[in-house]
Amino acid sequence: MPLPPPLQSTLDPHGPDAREIAEITWVLIGGAGVILALVVVLAAWAVFGRGQRRGAWLGSHAAVVGGGIVLPVVVLSALLVYTFIAAARMPAAHAEPALRIEVIGELWWWRVRYMDGDASGGHTNGGIDFETANELRLPVGRSVELHLRSDNVLHSFWVPALAGKLDLIPGRVNRLTVRADQAGHFRGQCAEYCGTQHAQMALWVVATPPADFDRWRAAQRAPAAAAPPAAFMQHCASCHAVRGSAAAGVLGPDLTHVGSRLTLAAGALPNHVGAHAAWIADPQQVKPGSLMPAFARELDGRQLTALAGYLRALE
User: Fold this and answer.
1) Is CATH 3.40.50.920 correct for 99-221?
2) I need a labelling partner for 171 at 20 to 30 A (CA). Which of 41, 56, 188, 307 fits?
3) What are the tens digits of pLDDT across the range 290-315?
4) Which runs of E-coded beta strand occur in the chain?
5) pTM for the complete prediction?
6) 144 and 129 in contact (C-beta within 8 Å)?
């Protein structure tokens, strides 16, 4: 399925939290617009109006107190109270999470771990169901709790179509509940500067009907359909895992079902054989400063093509 344009906007909500944020945004813009319009009218009257009464009123004590103190205090206080009330409605919009997912900010990609089926256990009582990268799949209409953390620097998880921003802080687990109310692809981004490739640390959230999500989850739990070739075991297995094989690296993304993902390198490349080959050969051309080493000198053209084809076929 082709990806939609990589647009991110708080004004295009597809979940309850995003709708509240969009509503708050419009109300604040409206309140600011009312104040701006009043100021413009008074300024125009002061400049272009005529008569002694106008000058006397504008310079009066009542005008200064009313326009400079009372009006801002009343309007801004009303907007503040409204914002608090609207923000308090967000947690109430979610039922008990049907799923818990651990999202770990890496340099510069997203490690995604689906926790086991015990919805009440989370990461504390349950183990890892399976691991993927740079992509979240969610069942439509069901609340999902994200456990956000980082083992390196400060990151920030932001999918504006579904929820607000929340930081990933080293040594701390922050929790964010999201729900997608309709199927679709929603782009996310690290929203806190985290180093050289911060701008290319994206992810996609894919919301599907519950039955489709269950089928996808069952497929993700399965081991890889084919054993890795010798080139993978020699050059890749120390950093990457392919479940069902001896490849069990943990430094890089789990590649067991990498062919099923929408993009490569945290949204930097589309997922096709040519992109796999380009990334393996020289990732610094795509994401300078990334921790992935280049293998153009270690692999000849035949080996590179075969390895790229193997990875693309891991669906």
Assistant:
1) no
2) 188
3) 999 999 999 999 999 999 999 999 99
4) 99-105, 110-115, 128-133, 135-139, 144-150, 155-158, 166-168, 174-178, 184-190, 202-208, 263-264, 269-270
5) 0.85
6) no
